[in-house]
Amino acid sequence: MTVSAEPASQESALHRYFQIGRRGSTLGREVRGGIATFFTMVYIVVLNPLILTSVPDSTGNYLAGGDVAMIAAATALIAGVMTILMGVVANYPLGLAAGLGLNAVVAFGVAGLPGMTWADAMGLIVLEGLIILVLVLTGFREAVFHAVPAPLKVAISVGIGLFITIVGLVDAGIVRKPAGGPPVELGVGGSLAGWPTLVFVLGLVAIIVMYAKKIQGAILYGIIGATVLAVILEAALDIGGQTDETGAVVNPTGWGLNIPALPDQIVNVPDFGLLGQFSLLGSIERIGVVTVILLVFSLMLADFFDTMGTMVAVGAEGDLLDEDGNPPNTNRILIVDSIAAAAGGAASVSSNTSYIESAAGVGEGARTGFASVVTGALFLLATFLAPLVSIVPYEAATPALVVVGYLMMRQVKEINWDDLEIAFPAFLTIVLMPFTYSITVGIGAGFLAFVLLKVVRGKARAVHPLMWLIAVLFLVYFTLTPIRELLGV
Predict the structure, then answer these.
(1) Tag placement on the chain: N or C end, fewer CB within 10 Å?
(2) If pLDDT is split at 50, 70 and 90, which confidence band does 34 have?
(3) Does residue 1 fall inside a structural domain?
């Protein structure tokens, strides 16, 4: 009797800490949600090393000497630690990892600047994260979040829904950019073709059917089933990847990122030698104070508002927001996210940030930080099981993003489309996120349009002072290139 009572006590303590019952969830849903989020995010363990080793710094050296395995291990480690921290400290179902877009900026726009090294570039990331942390601790970042009108927060969530949908469709090869003709087209030559496309379609259909049948675990089961099918097809047909060693497309109907083949080695010992390989202020000597300020500003603004949009979207999908559209423990979420940005730079894997793919876990039923603990634990496991993790192809994971995009799109009805002052800014926010492939651009355009329409209609005093400040900052952000040219930096 004593033995059986102990686990019950432990479980009740777990439920109390993470408020699992209070948020209408169960331990099973949290575990499934955490696993689903991991599977939709794990591509970063493969993709981040490919981006960061694609170009040398200004001295001709590659990050980690081009050692992809070393970067993958550090990427998974920081993602695991910071995601667990998000779950334990903020009790919010958000996964964190190296930010796509930000890592490309570091690789192609920062490391190659005259005199810059990889250590200097990562030092800039640490600096950016520390500045954002200061803004959070002083209350500024949370104050900005609360100053945003609730309808615009809804628009941000809807826009992100469309954004992750287009990300899913592009990553799966359903939507592509042709060599000539229109900006985008369906599949290959305007039609669906290839076995990987079939994997995506069947995965999407399976998730939708299970969702319609109200089967708990639909998203997770869809990802696993599609992965198994992908492995079988690759083993039987030897499909191969789309690109060769140089990145040139040689097989348009191949797999988009990683080939779903069973690896020869399942477990490997990770090398964490990249940790601490950064120079905090080395960039100032290399490129000057003014250039450093502009670079940090652009990185900071993107990180600042991407996170805001992500946590709102995830909270809206899980019905976790209050009447003003604010998630619980907002300040703690922002603190962890800020620390993650600096931690990513300190580990030489670029800024870590909150992932909108977390919405897949919320769609699976996750409502608390315990799901993040599960996701983080799987990332830590991935440092040893990187070969096994890499068998999940884009085509198997991205159907989940399309389904979650639909779920988030349903919130569009909460916007008053008859009120021009909110409807047009909301419209710009929603459409520019997928069309520009940037959450930050959508938010910035919406905020600027909101302030402009208030001024035009003689309601300038109704605009929160922080919204004025944000509008000015976004104006600078959108015109950063001509400003840099004017300053000669």
Answers:
(1) N
(2) very high
(3) no
Residue 4 confidence (pLDDT): 39
Domain that holds residue 469: 22-487
Alpha-carbon gap, residue 253 to 197, rounded angstroms: 8
| Separation CA 94–CA 92 (nearest Å) | 6
User: What is the phi/psi pair of residue 240, to 5°?
Assistant: 80, 175
Cα 489 from Cα 487, distance rounded (Å): 6
Q: Does residue 14 lie in a domain region? A: no
Q: What amino acid occupies position 465?
A: P
HEC string of 88-145? HHHCCCCCEEECCCHHHHHHHHHCCCCCCCHHHHHHHHHHHHHHHHHHHHCCHHHHHH
At 397 the pLDDT is 80
Q: What is the separation of C-alpha 429 from the centre of its chain, rounded to a whole number of angstroms? A: 18
Closest CA to 82 of 382, 375, 386, 387: 375
Query: In sequence order, what are the beta bridge partners of 96?
Result: 354
Residues 63-89: tens digit of each pLDDT: 988 787 889 899 999 999 999 999 999
Query: 3-state DSSP: the chain helix, strand, coil percent, rounded to 5?
Result: 65, 5, 30
How far apart CA 236 and CA 315 sit, in angstroms, is 42
Q: What is the count of structural domains for the chain?
A: 1
Separation of alpha carbons 328 and 93, rounded Å: 11
Residue 11 lies in a domain: no
- Check residue 187 and give its pLDDT: 82
The beta strand positions in 341-459, using DSSP E, are 352-354
Q: Pairing mode, if any, of strands 175-176 and 96-98?
A: unpaired
Most confident region among 9-18, 283-292, 311-320, 475-484 by mean pLDDT: 311-320
8 Å CB contact between 243 and 250:
yes
User: 128 near 365, Cβ under 8 Å?
Assistant: no
Q: Are 200 and 392 in contact (CB under 8 A)?
A: no
H or E segment and range at residue 406: helix 399-409
Give the pair of three-digit tokens for residue 21: 């019952």
pTM of the model: 0.75
Q: Is residue 13 part of a domain?
A: no
Q: At what angle do helices 369-382 and 68-85 cross, to 10 degrees?
A: 160
Round to whole Å and give the CA distance between 355 and 55. Answer: 25
